[in-house]
């Protein structure tokens, strides 16, 4: 009886102790949270999580929705794209802020040739690199640029207007030959053949040269009032000829053609010919000339692009990246030149956060689309496709990018609400990029800030405790029965183990244990 009585007391003591272990553990967790609240920045993290969830679900704040939808018409109408207001940044500079519902799509300055490049990809892989939406935008561009300025449209112009709208490539090519039969000097038809039918860059260059000769002859015989569309066509042809020279390795010739084109038509800055020039100069490793072009176009009054921002970052990173070491920088701190390079990288990443994953080869590249969305994944693909080789050529530049690019997101914790050097990140980019990029490509979205596991675990524990407290307050008797059943089930294995130990151990052992 003595041994059995002490064994029962031991069992009851264990049951009693387990009842309070949970309460002691919960008190220790609360104490730990209180002690570590400052080092872990719990309040900032929770606020960030709440804001991220809200903007992920609703996109804009309630006040912003009301002001845009109801107050702005009463105060002076809806902003047009040509009269956008200015949004002041942290450093006092002003950036043009786009309309809330608008995501403007731009022509890709470095778009590839359909017949010589896009079609060859389709022949090899069986996949279509261009979406119908992207090609339809190109058709609209061609109609507006090449056939939209004459008072009296000729018969071949009518044929070419229909040709640009054709969805079938073979139908477009047949229409181009039909226009050439009507007029052997139809430059637009030769342009279409160079873009669509030519299977090599050399063949495309030959057709573009024929188009240039035909366009110049047409321009000489035309009345000056009706030469607007012909000028647009000549600019397009000269630019594509420069791109052909670049692709065929005649880079200095391509640079000269681009410079002459920019000097001859300085008002056509919307074509972004300077981005073609920057890429060609980087291939020549003419970094002083690249800096001169950036000094002209990396201006606060001009629209930015990934090419402008990341080329500026590349030049500054190149100056320090060869001797850069994260360990040495953590010991002695960053020098002035290294700080400038890091700030330039942060600026570029804030403008387009999708580019680093392609430059660091954390995400696979595809052929760039014919149109891009600034700050979107389509622009990142187009930039990295042509400029990855230039980052690799600068020794240590990718290492510096790898070590510093993620720090940008600590500077802008709420990207949809507030920017740092630029206006807030547009929420419409993902939808527009899905229209521009093929379905087999996984569209990159704005990097999400994930809460630490400790925060998620603590939040779940607190929620569970609050639920138990509410149920105990509402149904005390029922919860008492439930707790008794829970703990009896929980300690059943322990009781079974104790019984087995009692049967295996000699009685003298338990006698000695009780005496202790």
UniProtKB/TrEMBL annotation:
UniProt keywords, alphabetically: Membrane, Transmembrane, Transmembrane helix
Major location category of this protein: membrane
Domain of life per record: Eukaryota
Cell location: Membrane
Keyword Membrane carried by entry: yes
Transmembrane segments: 17-36, 451-472, 478-498
InterPro entries given in the database record: ST7, TPR-like_helical_dom_sf
Cellular component terms per the entry's GO annotation: membrane
Membrane topology according to the record: Multi-pass membrane protein
UniProt family annotation: Belongs to the ST7 family.
This protein's name: Suppression of tumorigenicity 7 like
Record organism: Oncorhynchus kisutch (Coho salmon)
Gene name per UniProt: ST7L
